[in-house]
Design a protein that fits this description.
CATH topology of the largest domain: Cytidine Deaminase, domain 2
Largest sheet: 6 strands, mixed
Number of domains: 2
Strand content: 25-35%
Helix content: 25-40%
Number of strands: 13
Order of helices and strands: EEEEHEEHEHHHHEEHEHEHEE
Structural class: alpha/beta
Distance between the termini: 51 Å
Shape: globular
Length: 281
């Protein structure tokens, strides 16, 4: 596994407070490129916070449609300490994965804030044939409200740097399974999904994905690719995210804070009280 000591860097800064300037040390969330290659093909380059790189790559391959199951991924050769290989992962795929056919459409370079750069259109994503998550899942609103505090308690790197996004997977029982942090929100999601894929847990039927930032389009498509029925965020979703969630049957919850949240799609999976129907405003 990648060296987690690389996820934080120490620097000197000038702090101004109450008319006084002081030279102090400060922690920064690390950001480095990571290239993924399969044979002669570059599958993509992402800017990420080093750590959990195997999970990041595995989650990326699944959520971007390069692989569709754990068996498609034969091996990962992680970065070495040499200058040329420091941020390069070599991916070995099953021969049944036909990169030559799909490579040009899928390849992209992603910044830490953009997980969908280079997508030709939403229509291309629809052509992937993503299936709607299993509809039978039903979630207790009270249980959902307990998730954000659990996430905050485990954000170790965020506490030190203030500069990372987080993604957490919760079991159908409400148990927190895994939290992953990264400077890119889509990378944090890929790390969490990759953890599940490498552990044989995908599809994640009945599970909840909670993200610390907004619920964007790229997060919605990654959730659907992993079979997650409910995606929740502490902030707002984008219009494109809502449209995709409604079209592909994902339950999308935003502004999950305290004892309040907003359901943007898939209300049927939330166990709302039958005696208290939603008010029309």
């Amino acid at each position: 596994m990648a060296n987690k000591s690389r996820n934080i860097e120490l620097t000197q800064v000038t702090q101004w407070e109450d008319s006084k300037a002081t030279r102090v040390e400060d922690y920064l969330a690390a950001e480095e490129p990571l290239e993924m290659r399969a044979g002669r093909y570059s599958l993509g380059v992402t800017l990420r916070t080093p750590g959990d790189d195997e999970e990041l790559v595995a989650g990326f391959l699944l959520s971007e449609g390069i692989i569709s199951q754990r068996e498609d991924l034969v091996a990962l050769r992680m970065p070495t300490d040499t200058a040329l290989e420091k941020n390069l992962v070599r991916v070995i795929l099953d021969p049944s994965v036909r990169l030559a056919t799909n490579y040009a459409a899928r390849r992209f370079s992603a910044g830490s804030a953009c997980g969908v750069c280079g997508k030709a259109s939403i229509a291309q994503l629809r052509r992937r044939g993503l299936r709607s998550p299993i509809a039978a899942s039903l979630f207790d609103p009270e249980m959902l409200c307990r998730f954000p505090p659990k996430l905050r308690e485990t954000q170790a790197v965020f506490v030190r740097t203030g500069g990372l996004h987080a993604a957490a997977l919760f079991a159908p029982t409400g148990e927190l399974l895994v939290v992953r942090e990264d400077i890119g929100r889509h990378n944090a999601v890929d790390k969490a999904i990759g953890w599940a894929l490498l552990g044989g847990r995908v599809p994640l039927s009945g599970h909840v994905l909670l993200v610390s930032g907004r619920g964007g389009f790229e997060i919605v498509q990654k959730s659907i690719a992993a079979g997650i029925p409910l995606l929740a965020s502490v902030s707002a979703p984008s219009s494109l995210a809502v449209k995709l969630a409604r079209e592909l049957g994902l339950t999308l919850v935003g502004f999950l804070r305290g004892r309040r949240f907003v359901i943007y799609a898939g209300e049927e999976r939330i166990a709302l009280s039958a005696s208290e129907p939603a008010e029309v405003s």
